[in-house]
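Model it.
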Amino acid sequence: MTAYTVVVPTTGRDSLRTLVSALDHGMGPRPAELILVDDRPVPGDLPLPEVTVPVRVLRSGGRGPAAARNTGWRAADTPWIAFLDDDVRPTADWPSRLETDLATLPDDVAASQGRIVVPAPTGGRRPTDEERDTAGLATAEWITADMAYRRDVLAAVGGFDERFPRAFREDADLALRVRQAGWRLDHGLRTTLHPARHGGFFASVRAQRGNADNALMRRKFGPQWREMACEGPGRLGRHALTTLSGVAAFTFAAAGKRTSAVLSGAAWLALTAEFASRRILPGPKDPREIAKMAVTSVLIPPAALRHRLTGEVRVRRPRPAAKAVLFDRDDTLIHDEPYNNDPKLVRPVRGAEDVLRRLRAAGVPVGVVSNQSGVARGLITPGELAAVNARVEELLGPFGTWQVCVHADGDGCCCRKPKPGLVTRAAMALGVHPEDCVVIGDIGADVEAAHAAGARAVLVPTPRTREAEIEAARRDARVAGDLTGAVALAMGDRAW
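Modeled.
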């Protein structure tokens, strides 16, 4: 039997009772534990029925579903974590189908997505705008309404990025980082029902706050992030054109330029009417729904543009100085001696002792993240590796953490760079978040591992660094001529 924990972030909705009851009465292997993470700023009682499945309630302080899910999975100790939203209802056979979905997955598959079913409106009625929006979940990729991840993969990539404050994009971000780190994602056969959302008259306007999260996605994954996340093209360009046309119409009118004002106003009206009709025609011919679509179609374009611009400003602010600096070992801190098993051959690179001394004096934690496949290949013994690392510390001083991968390329571990495991473990050991770390190394795998963990990276090329790795680092990271320059980039304007 595959051991799993169910993690549910919740704001205390009444639908939580139905979800918990469904899990308790489901057919098949029961979860080892059901962890409910109360994400309300002021926690209260949860609407829970009497159940026999073990339930634990944790608090995440109102920091959003990404933080709540991190709180939940980090408290679990099973190989698999099944995430569910608090407004879904698993089918009666969900536990048995989850067992089937997980039992035969290859080691390189990190997660299994359940099938989301959104019930259609009753009586043959056409779906409203909100109902159509919810129905889109049935074809969405990698959503955590029902998504099971290997716990060691979550640990390797650092879990959810808590810079996503809403239930929006945080799941796609995790999936993309997991795939970039070399794992695959799969679809399962289990089914979960998701009722339509009903958020009130201005719900679609409030939803435009997600455009700020789109800015973060673009910052992290580049202009092609929508294609990578299996998303459509979006309407931000049209919303911007609509908003600018409206602003131009008012500006020209105020300046007494009637013809220009009329032309700009006509463009705004045409764009707004096109948007409203796209939302009205598929829906019910209810006057209240039509009025809602008309009003919100006027408000959505400027709201979307405002939130996107706010998000772009936020993600483009200079990131603060690193709270911790992680170094590759060979050809970064010491000259590379292939598969070195002799402490006498350890030779620090120029500037290593000085920058480490200055970082320690400034109170910046330092660590080492190093691939050492010579152990797996039988070329180095664990004792010899420990002796070489001890010599490094003898020459360069103590490090707050040593994170070393002794596996070979084909071992399928979660730690070997370019996978993020070494970086996330080092951050945890130093008591900081991965995004507050800078990784300094000499090859592309160091940069890729940093990005997969959510950290920053600085590449210090050597004659062995490939030109393609240098070009990639110039686009996506930073490049320094030597170790001193790399640490200066990591620390920014901070005095160190």
